[in-house]
Amino acid sequence: MPNLLIQGGQPLNGTIRPHGNKNAALPTLCASLLTDELVVLDNIPHITDVEKLVSYFKDMGSKVYWDKGAKRIELSHRDFGKAGNAALPVGMRSSVLLFAPLLHRIGQVPLAVNAKGCALGVRELDPHIEIMHHFGAEMIQSASAIDLKIAKPMQGCRHWADYMSVTATENFVMAAVLAKGNSILLNAASEPHVQDVCRFLVQLGAKISGIGTSRIEIEGVDSLSSGAFQISSDFHEVVTFLALGAMTDGHVEVHDVQTEHFDLIIRSFAKLGVSVENDGETLSVFPGQTRVIQKPLTSNILPKIEAAPWPYFPVDLLPLMIALSVRAQGEVQFWNKVYENGFSWIPELTKFGAHVVTSDPHRIVVFGNRPLRPATVEAPYIIRAAVALYMVAATIEGESRVIHADPIRRAHPGFVENLQRLGAVVHWD
User: Fold this and answer.
1) Which of 90, 157, 239, 318 has its CA 20 to 30 A from that of 14?
2) What pLDDT score does 117 carry?
């Protein structure tokens, strides 16, 4: 696997335009299967999971034109299924987002039971299968596979989810837009990428209300039309570059930001002593940040950042703020309320000299501003943890290495090139 070789200690300065959000691009590509008409998607990131979906579409007979330089994909699925019966893409959790589209198009979904995307912990299939069952699908299970089949058009339903699952919400929406009658989902996820998928489907003629809330109501339609849609910018990249600017005492401006999603994120930066300036569609950090962790008015508790489903602080951003806190003065608790394996990479972070105490599988305390040293660390199969390890290394004078850093490419095209434009000394080894 590729490694990152880092010469740290340089301040990062410059402007950045983030790529499209991976977590919006993948379900939107899957949702394009719900129409036979031409679909044009802009701001599509060039990442491995998109490559896998495009290959799958082509293997199944779809016509796909991908202009990688322009970040545009044009899709026509009119002949989908006529070229054979290709296996679902492997090694990507997003394969579950093909459940509803495939049941609508060909009436069945063959699925290996070990679909996964990263090492964050148990990522169960049950919520997705339960939703498809509510819409009329039947499950046939063997030791190594699960087949979902449906013999008649989907019927609208009401479902109260156990928890706010992003992909389960997206699967429900994709099933409901072409189901007969009305459907209601309670305890729906509302992340910006979920909103993107819903707005894309509305662009094609779907009738969805409650977008961005925990209650989504959908009136099924007979068919969807053609349409064009632009994927929103990746707020994970936005936070990464802002934090790197603050950590290295640099000046970084990030453009094309949907700043309406950043109120809580900006306040979380402030908890770590970093001021983020908001200028419409641009967020900036400047040199001279205090990086002193704010103490709460209640003096006997630690300052903390809690991560949970939106509109809480996004759990995928937690590693990036942990990296920033290592370079801040004071103590802060991080609480991951979603993944039981979300802090498995912390022992690698401590190889740099970071002082982190693991309280339990969901909580850690970072004691910031300790002396750090260059190190060779191993990234887990967790995208943002690999990024966070790079971020800390970038602040330390001398040569560090992040081995097995390839998961970064699953979400961040041109990651190294963007860093180099900001003045970082880093390359793939």
Assistant:
1) 318
2) 44
